[in-house]
Structures are given as C-alpha cells and as structure tokens.
Amino acid sequence: MSIRVLLVDDEKEFVDLLGERMTARGMEVNTTTSAADALRITEDQSFDAIVLDLMMPEMDGIQVLKTLKAKHPELQVILLTGHGSIEKGVEAMRQGAMDFIEKPADLEVLTEKIRKAQARKMILVERKVEEEVREILISKAW
Questions:
Q1: Which residues pair with 7 in a beta bridge?
Q2: With bands split at pLDDT 50, 70 and 90, how would you rate the model's confidence at 81?
Q3: What is the pLDDT of residues 24-79, one digit of tens each?
C-alpha cells in the first residue's frame, strides 16, 4: 500500500520537484499551488499526509490547517516553511499539525515524517472504527 500525500505550496517549481522526488520513493503524490484547491481536494480524496506551506498568498498554512482539522481531525499535516519561527511552530502544533519543518527540507527527514504520519492516521482511523462499532453494538442491545 503506497503512501498518499498532498503537497501544497505556492511555488510551482518547488512542489513539482518535490512531488517527483517523493513519487520516485514510491509515494502517490497530488500537488497544488493553491490553499483553496487543497481544501477542495481533501473533500473528495483521502491522504495519509499533507505537506503544507506556511506562507501562501490567498490563505496562510495555519488557516488551512484549522479548516482541515475541523473537517477531518484524522488528517496528518506537516507544515513546511522558509520563514520559520518558534512562535509559528508552536501555533501550528496547537492547531493540530503533526510537525513543522523549515525549507529546504531534507528529503529523508520529510519522508520519515510522512511515514510516521501514515502510521498515526491508521491508528486514529482504526480507533474511530472501533468506537463506531462499539456504539452500534450498544445501540442494538443484542
């Protein structure tokens, strides 16, 4: 089972190059240069990890993160920025980001974080299914 990743960054060349390198590592990668597109894409598709740029023109990564986590709490988001600060990193983690990485990201480090994101999402989804099954069994009172 390949890892499904959504890359979101307003720098087209960057997202295309990173997407190619991650695809070469066996990941199934979707890319977009728009925060609004990312929100639309996540309505129709499921991803193990979303690598999201912090600074984008239409909406910053923190806003996108808040919107994504409100609708899909199981999503694993890794914020990526060329303008990192401790304050932004702390805010990202508070809002539910899995991690915060500065550009240029070491591809091996990013790949490992994406693998951890996949494992974390699988655990969260499994727990959610168990909870739903438990509620069904209780409500049926067999």
A1: 31, 51
A2: confident
A3: 999 999 999 999 999 999 999 999 999 999 888 888 888 999 999 999 888 999 99
Task: Say what the alpha-carbon torsion angle 79, 76, 73, 38 is, to the nearest 10 degrees.
Answer: 60
Helical pair 61-71 and 86-94, crossing angle rounded to 10 deg: 10
- State the residue for tokens 């307003």: 10
Type and span of the H or E element at 111? helix 107-140
- The one-letter code for the residue type at 104 is P
pLDDT reading at 132 higher than 90 = no
One-letter amino acid of 31: T
Residue with tokens 């193990």: 48
Provide the token pair at 136: 């069904």
Structure token digits, residue 83: 């303008």
